[in-house]
Amino acid sequence: MSNLIIKNASQVVTCSGFEGKRSKEMSDLSIIENGTVIVTNGLISLILKQDEKVDVNLSDYHVLDASGRALLPGFVDPHIHFVFGGYREEEFSWRMRGDSYMEIMNWGGGILSTTLKTREASEDELIKSGKMRLDAMLHLGITTVEGKSGYGLDKETEIKQLRIMKYLNEVHPIEIEQTRRYLEAARQYGLKLKMHADEIAQLGGTELAVELNCISADHLLQASDNGIMSMAESNVVATLLPLTAFSLREKYARAREMIDSGCIVALATDLNPGSSFSSSVPLLFAIACIYMNMSPEEAVTAFTINSAAAIGRADKIGSIDIGKHGNMILLQYPSYKFLPYNVGMNIVEKVIIKGEVVI
To answer: What is the dihedral sign for C-alpha 51, 53, 59, 61?
Structure first.
């Protein structure tokens, strides 16, 4: 943790808030023009407008001149599977010729293929590949992720995955959140509930997530009208994974309807070896804005404060607010609007975690 002053940012895009945002709130990024942010001992301590003076001992701080560049909260990716063995590049070509995901599963591909390779892989191999993926995400501006197990399907391998994520959390700048997908049993042990819901077929998973008061319901490609309305009346975060729909050539989740109905909408990459072998933030923003009818402002909110809410961390990360972790990114351009506009390009220049410039 470090002391840092980031001065003269063309925009300080604060995304200010301590809980998930809905409807028109998602368009309010609470921008400070030509602002300065001060991080003390890893936490944001001051946010200053252009004419306000820095009233600290400058010798105690590193100073970063952000003139001509926009400063945003570090991105939060609330749904990834980054610890796994092997790859499934052959399956991708099968999908391109028209074979369905379920057909590939029936042939022994899909998650069953990854399960076998994850069981066979050594911890050293999984640590090396997991770190490589985290490094790539860090360069894209992702400062916190929620890593999921689930590729073991036996106790030993599931614990191995969680142990590796725990180790990587200790040695890598990115903060890793861990979840398990055991709903009622998990609740008995004090764990918060999350659901993969209505991804392939409309099975009422969205409604169940609301009934169980889950922290989030993820995927939602097939969420029903009733499910969307139920989420809008609850605090369940609708976490959308557009890279998966893109890779599978499926229809995207109905982001526009969800936002207009009052849902708390978050975005995630769903990095995994099968249906979405990508953590591309530029592609995520392009799809969200061009194909899912989200505004640039809504997309930024969905991948910062709302995605922090999707992992129960909106009180500590996801916005530039006093008292929160000093996790921020500096773009190459003066406005956040370049994120979807500079299509498919990584425009993150610097990444800051707890006041330390790590990229």
So the answer is: negative
Laid out side by side, the sheet with 75-80 consists of 75-80, 142-148, 175-179
Separation CA 171–CA 202 (nearest Å):
40
Provide the pLDDT for residue 205: 58
CA distances from 256 to 22, 24, 128, 337, 343 (A): 12, 12, 39, 19, 21
**Measured distance CA(339)–CA(75) in Å, rounded:** 12
List the one residue out of 188, 189, 184, 191 whose CA is nearest residue 211: 184
Burial of 293 (0-12, 13-18, 19+ CB in 10 A): middle
Q: In the CATH scheme, what is the code of domain 76-309? A: 3.20.20.140
Q: Is residue 151 very low, low, confident or very high in pLDDT (cuts 50, 70, 90)?
A: confident
3-state secondary structure of 128: helix
CATH class of 4-73+317-357: mainly beta
Task: Say whether 148 sits in a helix, a strand or coil.
Answer: strand
Q: Sketch the domain layout of the chain as residue ranges.
A: 4-73+317-357, 76-309
Burial of 333 (0-12, 13-18, 19+ CB in 10 A): middle
Q: Provide DSSP, 84-118.
A: --S--HHHHHHHHTT--HHHHHHTT-HHHHHHHHH
Residue tagged 């252009």 (tokens): 50
Average pLDDT over residues 28-40: 98
pLDDT band at 73; cut points 50, 70, 90: very high
At 36, phi and psi to the nearest 5?
-135, 140
